[in-house]
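Table S2 (continued). Query chain:
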Amino acid sequence: MGKSNKVILALYGVGIIMAVVLIAWIFSSVKTSSVEISADQKIDITPEQIKSIKDIGEWEFLAISDEEMVDTVRKGFFSDDHLARIYYGTMRLGVNLKQVESGWITVNDDTLDITLPKIGLLDRDFIDEARTKSFFESGKWETKDREALLRRAYQRMLQRGLTPQNLEAARQNGDAQVRQVMQSMGFKFIKVRFDYGNDK
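Corresponding output:
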């Protein structure tokens, strides 16, 4: 065998060895490599969605119906005058979405964070004066006397309606209603808070 043939054979041998090493490296890389597929869990809320929620306006969470009988007596020389009237009213507890502050809806990864105004009376003129009844009346009474009775009835209804228990019931109802609306819009994880510190 000539010298040139030996050189050619040697080159072939080196080429084969390099090819084997290259193939082995490729297989080794394939075995140790992994492909990771992950879904983007971040959600987003559009300005149109925020506007549609704000357009709800007054959102009622609890209605409390009450009736109060209020009376007064005016002492007389020969006899006393009496005035007793029955008042009816419905107090609506909820929030006014027109009062929300900037940043009231934020998105943190996969969670929608909603901060609503303080729950309170949606309408402070809640006594239905058309249903007011005169229970008993003797003597002559002026408009100011009847107005005084109305104010007393109003304060009594406030005391009965704005109790911690009723406010908590309104908060729980509100939390459930807000979550239901948000879930219907496609959001899964929702955190609702009202600005007086109660979180859910």
